[in-house]
Backbone:
């Protein structure tokens, strides 16, 4: 097996009986007997299962004309002295330089060695072998032609390989620029005319092709070169492969079926080819290489198309779900705003009669003839009403926050003076519970700030109110201190404190710790603080 065959040979190919074109040998000599003797000596010659085909030229001019008409001559048996002493040398020069033919093996046969010195002519005219006619026996001629054909075959294969690889690389590069199976088929149809035949060096021949899709026993044409009866070729060749997956290449004479791709759904893709003559060994091996490359390329394109389709579907689902989530959030937000507006309205509706109740209770408590038990009852009514108003105020503030209706009204004021004022008010409540109140001012006697004074007052009063409410013994401290980033207000008490678990939900709506459940409350203050 040659290097070419070992490099490109594959097991996924069925090659049927094929006859190949013979090796062309050009005999250039002005003696007819030389032509006859040469043909007789080589009449039974065969190399690589191919016989010889003889071309005749009886002069240098005839040889040049034959070389123009046949660019695939393997061996040239060339006489030197014909119509001139250098006629043969002029033929060799024309072949190498004018035609650019570096593949044909030139064997110089001369009966006058002195007119063409061996060393000089072989170097100057790129002659491959030099033989004296008197010494060239039948056996020696056989061996000489055999060696020349071996050399020609190796050079031809190398040139074919270089050209074919260039075509395969170009074809794959064109296909890899596509992103869909449809574009891939269209590009393949446009590229194949310049890709096939792969190993054609001398002259361009048309290879008819059809791109066929097979689904079970049904098949359809996706593209073709010209109108030709590919259906019968496809049926005949596919019947010869035992492959149940239909993934095998089949080549017979001038026809070939090349596997390209098989989708997971069972749909397979093929190339059906028809060459002008029997497909050569080199072309068969190169077709296998082309098939292997196209299989990988097509698989990647089909896979990318599938992934792209799945990604598009996923994006659509994500978009739909995002839209649904946005709609749900908008509805929830609208419901929350409506709830907050409702609570704010209801708070106002409750506040009005409650103020009337408290007002009448105060008027009645001032009556001079009111019995003590009635005064006690009126006091309870007043305390309960004030407590209810506090709850209503908290609900109203939270409703404003959630509805986005709260508006801050900042102004300049003295924070220390505000804290003294609040401390004086809370110290009385601490005395009533037997608690000690302290205002710990660690800053200057005056602290100008720009803020919403009413909101700040409410926050500090609520914090201190909770501290007094949940502290039964000890003290409550209001501290003002300077930090690196500004100033901090702190409320410190000796009450039960807040556990780590309770701190996690401290600022949630209506959240209360264990102490809150025991003492009672709404759990709205912390939400307002946040």
Residues:
């Amino acid at each position: 097996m040659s290097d070419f065959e070992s490099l490109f040979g594959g097991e996924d190919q069925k090659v049927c009986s094929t006859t190949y074109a013979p090796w062309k040998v050009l005999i250039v000599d002005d003696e007819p007997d030389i032509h006859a003797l040469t043909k007789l000596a080589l009449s039974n010659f065969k190399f690589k299962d191919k016989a010889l085909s003889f071309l005749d030229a009886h002069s240098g001019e005839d040889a040049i004309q034959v070389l123009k008409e046949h660019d695939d001559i393997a061996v040239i048996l060339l006489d030197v002295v014909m119509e001139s002493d250098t006629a043969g040398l002029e033929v060799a020069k024309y072949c190498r330089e004018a035609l650019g033919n570096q593949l044909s093996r030139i064997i110089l046969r001369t009966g006058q060695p002195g007119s063409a010195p061996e060393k000089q002519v072989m170097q100057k005219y790129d002659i491959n072998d030099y033989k004296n006619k008197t010494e060239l026996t039948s056996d020696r001629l056989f061996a000489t032609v055999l060696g020349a054909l071996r050399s020609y075959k190796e050079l031809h294969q190398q040139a074919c390989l270089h050209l074919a690889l260039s075509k395969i690389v170009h074809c794959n590069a064109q296909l890899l620029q596509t992103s869909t199976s449809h574009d891939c088929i269209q590009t393949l149809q446009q590229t194949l005319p310049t890709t096939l035949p792969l190993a054609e060096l001398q002259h361009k021949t048309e290879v008819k092709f059809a791109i066929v899709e097979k689904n079970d026993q049904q098949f359809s044409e996706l593209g073709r070169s010209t109108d030709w009866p590919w259906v019968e070729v496809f049926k005949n060749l596919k019947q010869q492969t035992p492959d149940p997956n239909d993934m095998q290449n089949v080549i017979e004479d001038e026809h070939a079926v090349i596997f390209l791709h098989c989708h997971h759904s069972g749909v397979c893709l093929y190339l059906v080819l028809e060459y002008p003559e029997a497909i050569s060994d080199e072309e068969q091996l190169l077709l296998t290489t082309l098939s292997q490359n196209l299989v990988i390329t097509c698989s990647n394109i089909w896979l990318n198309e599938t992934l792209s389709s799945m990604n598009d579907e996923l994006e659509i689902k994500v978009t739909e779900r995002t839209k649904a989530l946005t709609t749900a959030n908008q509805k929830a937000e609208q419901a929350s705003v409506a709830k907050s507006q409702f609570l704010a309205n209801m708070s106002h509706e409750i506040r009005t009669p409650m103020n009337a109740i408290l007002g009448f209770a105060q008027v009645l408590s001032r009556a001079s003839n009111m019995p003590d038990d009635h005064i006690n009852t009126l006091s309870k009514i007043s305390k309960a009403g004030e407590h209810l108003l506090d709850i209503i105020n908290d609900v109203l503030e939270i409703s404003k926050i959630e509805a986005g209706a709260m508006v801050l009204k900042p102004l300049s004021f003295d924070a220390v003076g505000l804290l003294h004022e609040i401390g004086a008010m809370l110290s009385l409540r601490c005395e009533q519970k037997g608690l000690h109140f302290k205002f710990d001012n660690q800053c200057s006697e005056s602290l100008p700030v720009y803020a919403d004074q009413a909101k700040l007052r409410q926050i500090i009063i609520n914090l201190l109110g909770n501290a007094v409410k949940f502290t039964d013994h000890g003290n409550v401290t209001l501290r003002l201190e300077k930090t690196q980033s500004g100033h901090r207000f702190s409320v410190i008490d000796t009450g039960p404190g807040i556990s780590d678990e309770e701190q996690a939900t401290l600022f949630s709506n209506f959240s209360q710790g264990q102490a809150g459940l025991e003492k009672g409350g709404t759990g709205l203050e912390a939400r307002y603080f946040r």
In short: The radius of gyration is 52 Å. Residues 181-187+195-308 form a domain with the Beta-Lactamase fold (CATH 3.30.450). Residues 209 and 273 are 5 Å apart (CA to CA). Residues 3-18 have pLDDT under 50 and may be disordered.
